[in-house]
Amino acid sequence: MLKKLIAACAAMLTMVVCASAAGSVFPAARTDMDGVTRYGYLDEAGQTVLPFAYNAAGDFAECGLAAVEDNKWQTALIDRTGRLVVPYTASPVSVEFSADAAAYRYSDRSVYYTVEGKEIGTYVGAEGFFADGLLKCKSPASGLYRYVKEDGEEAFEGAYKKAGVFSEGRALVQTEDNAYIVIDTTGAEIARLPAEITPTYMSIYGTDTIVVSGGTTYALYSLSKGYLTDFLYAEISEFHEGAAMVRQINRWGMIDVNGKLKTEPTYYYLSYMGEGLYAARSQDGSAAAVDADGNVAYRTASYVGGFKELRYGLSWHGMADGGLIFFRKSGGYFASLKNAEDPLLLSDKVVRVTQDGEVRYINLETEQVLFTPPTSFELGQGLVAKTVHYEKFMGYQADGSEHGWNVSFPEIDGLPDAAMQKKINTAIRDFFLKGPSVTAEYDALEGTYGVSLEGTVLVVSANCVSGKGEGSSIWNNSLAFDLNTGGQYKISDLLIGDYSDMVRDLLPDDHPIYLYSYPRMSAKGVTYYYNEYQSDTRRAYTETYLLTFEQLADVVDREGECWVALQTPYRRPDQPRFSDVPKTHWASAVVDEVVDRGLMQGANGTFKPDQPLTYAEMCATVVRLEKLETPKELLPTLKADAWYADEVTAVSNAGLLTGLEEGFTPDASVTRADAMQMFANLLLKREIKAPEANEVDAILTPFTDAADLSAERRAAAALCVREELIAGSGGKLTPNAVLTRAEFAKLLLGTADKGQTTE
């Protein structure tokens, strides 16, 4: 059962990691022409370290592990060599890492692993990681917090409304009677906050500092010394590396855990970027990256966005001219890119950006483009599918993320008929910009497309997620265009009768038949999809089922235009069908017609017109011409496993091997005399009168090599000449020469419509 994740961005697999300078191996995404985004890992030289074989992949965390997904809706942890440290298992909602552990977050539990891959345990309601050997867990039933040990047993009695993480053997908790106390790892109370004090965060900073609220203002409080500051601040952030941001009226500064201002509140804006650095905006309008003491690592007077976070010691900001500037944590300009947006730092040298309309992975140090995912695909016969990107902003989600459409669809190029090409491209564009339904036009839509050339049918499919969060679903509907007419096919053009009964029998009965949606045709069969909505325990996904034409044989309309188009390779009107039969070849028109009629075919783009024909091939073609039935019993002289056994037997049963039985060798090359005998048999079967003996001599007299014909072949040759199947060359019939495929095609075409087949 194939479960295919539809993903166009790394957000499809949430992995919470701490970026580190060890990120010289990073994930890259590539969407192929089947519409599936696959992930691999590259190094800073652009070499593929791990192949594009994952349905989703995350950064390598500081602990040296990364989370990846396969196409069966399973997640694993790998090291930088691709070795499975934690084998594939049911995918969680997210994966989080600490320095020495990983946590799979499911909706109802968390499973923890060591960095060596050993399972630590499964814990209901777990939050964060073990600290001082204890893990806080929230009871789904009561909503109260408890602390557990690695074996899952409660560390001590006691349940709390709020609970902090243990640090240096202590944690801040709120009891069921609303008191705030500090406990040790045995649960014993070691301090109690005054009743009038309300902690802003359930964290103890430094040795004993907490942030407390006085309603609309905030202060710092020491468990041992009391108030470290008055309620002077309109806001105090959490502490990072011994410093917190504080706001007085509309100015920001920084303070240490002892209540001492490290930087006076002078900034108009301040936010923590990570690694001890802050983004600051000053009164003069400049933006800077500063440390907790106000030391400037980087400053610019001209910027558009950015200064959001530090990753791998780097950050960035945009410029009014559409460029990006990258700067180091240690201070100073590092690199710049023109016409770039949406940067994602992947290592201390590599960034992924959208530049000049395409996604690029760039080494900032060398300015080398390491990798560019394909944005166009060669379909063959000069046809190209070019990616067109469409975005529609619809507002913001409750979590602050953008809400709207982010969709790619193909534009076809290379069709010789410009009007038809425009018609097809308009239909494709309308299909994608309409979306899966009228109501879905108001939902988020994100994804890409699949495209393939199935015979003469162009199949274009959506590969998108409609909606966000719980209730979102996969949209993978498709269109099918005939490239000779520009018309569209539906499944009802391919399958006939009450085909739904057969489809129902062939598909798994896990779900009602009406839930298997969006059937997609191909040269191999029809693919059905079961699309599952996203829930609180899983993302939206698809189960894919290919029903082959062998399975659907009883309901396939093999006489219909759709079937013929799927089975007939596309050929541009301005190009030869086969590379070895140019328009200047004497048999070009003949070859085209016998192939169009389905009587003969080529292979790998060639027809081999000058190659000798075998008796077995001649028999197989005659079976198609005469639509002979498959025999129930084979000729005793044939091997049952020979590919031609049925065909030769059918021709023999129809009496068409008369005069050829003696010494008949299917694998041998056909002589022109024997070919004339076969076609004479066909004409006689269609009740075309054989020439009289004196007429035979008169017909054959003009040919200087008529004497080379055996007595048994003279009548057959005369009949073929009289019916204008054979004209000879240079006054000769050359009866003993072998027959080429092109010559046979001419004979076949000349015979095809002569007379009537006797029932």
Which structural class is indicated by helix and strand composition?
mainly beta
- Low-pLDDT runs of 5+ residues are 1-23
- Biggest β-sheet: count, sense, barrel? 7 strands, mixed
Kindly estimate the percentage of residues that lie in beta strands according to DSSP.
35-45%
> Kindly state the mean pLDDT as a whole number?
91
Structure, described:
It is a single chain. The protein has 759 residues and is mainly β. Among the domains are: 1-123, Lipocalin (Beta Barrel); 376-567, no CATH class; 588-752, no CATH class. The protein is built from 10 helices and 50 strands. A hairpin with a 6-residue loop joins strand 15 (134-138) and strand 16 (145-148). 38% of the residues are buried.
Short description:
With 759 residues, the protein is mostly beta strands. Helix content is 14%, strand content 36%.
Question: What's the helix and strand layout?
Answer:
Elements: E1 2-4, E2 14-16, E3 25-31, E4 37-43, E5 48-54, E6 56-57, E7 66-69, E8 74-78, E9 84-90, E10 94-97, E11 101-105, E12 110-114, E13 119-123, E14 126-131, E15 134-138, E16 145-148, E17 162-163, E18 170-174, E19 180-184, E20 189-192, E21 198-199, E22 209-213, E23 218-222, E24 226-227, E25 235-236, E26 243-248, E27 251-256, E28 261-267, E29 269-274, E30 277-281, E31 287-290, E32 296-300, E33 304-306, E34 314-318, E35 324-328, E36 333-337, E37 340-345, E38 350-355, E39 358-363, E40 368-371, E41 376-380, E42 383-396, E43 402-413, H1 418-434, E44 445-454, E45 457-466, E46 473-475, E47 478-482, H2 499-506, E48 516-521, E49 525-532, E50 541-548, H3 561-567, H4 588-596, H5 615-626, H6 645-653, H7 672-685, H8 693-700, H9 711-722, H10 741-752
Parallel strand pairs: 2-10, 43-44
Antiparallel strand pairs: 1-50, 3-4, 4-5, 6-7, 7-8, 8-9, 10-11, 11-12, 12-13, 14-15, 15-16, 17-18, 18-19, 19-20, 21-22, 22-23, 23-24, 25-26, 26-27, 27-28, 29-30, 30-31, 31-32, 33-34, 34-35, 35-36, 37-38, 38-39, 39-40, 41-42, 42-43, 44-45, 45-46, 45-47, 48-49, 49-50
Helix pairs in contact: 4-10, 5-6, 7-9, 7-10, 8-9
